[in-house]
Amino acid sequence: MALNGTYKFCFSNEFSTFTHKTVYFDFQVGEDPPLFPSENRVTALTQVKWLEKLSVIDYQTHFRLREAQGRSRAEDLNTRVAYWSIGEAIILLVVSIGQVFLLKSFFSDKRTTTTRVGS
User: If exposure means fewest CB atoms within 10 Å of the residue's CB, which of 80, 88, 97, 106 is most exposed?
Assistant: First the structure.
């Protein structure tokens, strides 16, 4: 029994405010139109075809949602890898410059003055 009126859906993201959520819901109201309007009689075969079509639509929706989740995870991972690579490149550059100056200090000519005491 369907009640006429305005319905509201309320969603909360209190559990994890840092990650975005994708919410999917599906509801059907009223009678579905017949799949084959030319056939007025309902047989076991038409019922099976109707159930197959309905389940295929549900499976397609499910797989589209899974693909969207996978794409989101892949894009997030790609962003993290890019930032990590940039950070590694900066660290490599700093360490390389530090090693050059360290090796340069080993071979620099340091003149020390010695004084003789008592001569």
Answer: 106
